[in-house]
Backbone:
């Protein structure tokens, strides 16, 4: 009973999800993956009953996909600041029904031609920026060659793992700046979400029959 009362940080009602996997052989370049994602979302948005849609590299309530980060301008001595990491499209947060606390969400203009940006959750803000305003600060991965990413928004915590565990602090990067060929499609509908799944699969296969859809 208590698990059913856990705040998920999003609205699960009328939310359909579908995993979409495109061949990395056919979509090997970033611009190809971005173009495919845009075409899928445009065609999905035109389906009857669809209110909004987005993609993410990982669905809520699933753990995994983490990165080590450091804060630009601060001393770094090899600490393992491990956070959950998600690549999400411009419409993802609105489709989930998440809560924006400060700043802004991503837009389609946040692409490879623009400086890298990142949205963080409240847990990451409280852990790594206590008593500070994180907006405008920059973070980067600990791996060599990591781009500087400016924090443009703070969202309330979304459960990025099982509801009986505390989620790690989480960072969200713009899909258009760091795309992948394997994503979860998230669709807000005005009808029973299960009823729209065949149409989602059909419209994706019209774009490319070789794309796999499951889950």
Residues:
């Amino acid at each position: 009973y208590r698990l059913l009362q856990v705040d998920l940080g999003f609205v699960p009602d009328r939310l359909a999800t579908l995993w979409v996997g495109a061949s990395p052989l056919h979509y090997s370049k970033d611009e190809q993956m971005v173009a495919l994602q845009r075409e899928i979302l445009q065609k999905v948005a035109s389906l009857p009953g669809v209110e909004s849609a987005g993609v993410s590299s990982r669905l809520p309530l699933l753990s995994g996909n983490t990165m080590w980060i450091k804060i630009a301008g601060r001393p770094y001595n090899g600490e393992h600041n491990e956070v959950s990491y998600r690549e999400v499209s411009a419409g993802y947060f609105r489709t989930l029904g998440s809560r924006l606390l400060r700043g802004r969400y991503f837009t389609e203009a946040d692409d490879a031609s623009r400086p890298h940006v990142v949205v963080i959750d409240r847990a990451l803000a409280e852990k790594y920026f206590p008593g500070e305003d994180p907006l405008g600060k920059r973070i980067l991965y600990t791996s060599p060659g990591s781009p500087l990413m400016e924090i443009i928004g703070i969202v309330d915590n979304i459960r990025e793992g099982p509801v009986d565990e505390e989620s790690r602090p989480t960072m969200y990067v713009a899909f258009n700046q760091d795309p992948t060929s394997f994503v979860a499609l998230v669709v807000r509908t005005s009808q029973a979400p299960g009823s729209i799944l065949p149409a989602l699969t059909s419209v994706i296969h019209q774009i490319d029959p070789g794309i796999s859809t499951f889950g």
Q: What stands out?
A: Residues 32 and 121 are 29 Å apart (CA to CA). The first helix runs from residue 30 to 45. The longest strand covers residues 182-189. Helices lie at 30-45, 92-96, 122-128, 193-207.
